[in-house]
Amino acid sequence: MFVVVLLIGLLLAWAYRVTRPLPPNICGSPCGPPITASRIKLRDGRHLAYKEHGVPAEVAKYKIIYVHGLFTCRHSAVIAKNLPQELVEELGLYIVSYDRPGYGESDPDPKQTVKSLALDVEELADQLGLGSKFYVIAYSIGCHVVWGCLRYIPYRLSGAALLAPIINYWWRGLPSNLSTEAYYKQLPQDQWTHRVSHYIPWLTYWWNTQKWFPALSAVPGNPNIFSRQDLEITSKKVGKQINKIYITKSINRDIFVGLSKKIL
């Protein structure tokens, strides 16, 4: 009997360990990376790093908050980096990109939800003095932040856009026939990742770090998910700053939050 109890205890301990990521090393802490970015302090004491682009906010005609995707950070604001400066000035564009929780130099949020992400955006806008309304644009899995903004702070938005979104196929309001069609166009491993994250989200970290089955294709950078044009762009290896101490936990937190049932 003792042996059985011991084996069960060891099995539970192993299961707990493999389903929980290592604790992050906070930027600015005694053993953590240095702080180099501009940051704001949020309502719960966390810090959010950001980078401003374009014309000054006080003279801007359009104020835009850009939300990055996987493996990127505040430096990856494609809408700011790829527009000619003359056009930015002519249109009066102010763009602020920020490190989502756990990326770059922003503190991780162990209690992160789609609502908390939307409130982070709202607080960033308020502390930077962007006024009562602003635009939000997001890329890849960062699009669940915009979904949260549309749901929780719609009164603050002048407009919203999703660029190449990774979506939750169970989002309410999406036509079920289109969601189903798009879902089955994914690679089988991505279909399984969505199922795991949606139905048994506490296994998300284990699923994306185990070696028995193929996990989310975007995490290892599977070339099969890219078109020829995508491969030409990614082959240029655009530089980016990501805090690797946080990255595994942050990516899996993204998947857990963005694809689970909790945001429906």
Automatic annotation (TrEMBL):
Q: Which domain of life is it from?
A: Eukaryota
Residue span, AB hydrolase-1 domain: 64-192
Report if keyword Signal is assigned: yes
- InterPro entries listed in its UniProt record: AB_hydrolase_1, AB_hydrolase_fold
Per the UniProt entry, the signal peptide is 1-15
**Keyword set for this entry?**
Signal
Q: Which Pfam families match?
A: Abhydrolase_1 (PF00561)
Q: What is this protein called?
A: AB hydrolase-1 domain-containing protein
Which species does this protein come from? Quercus rubra
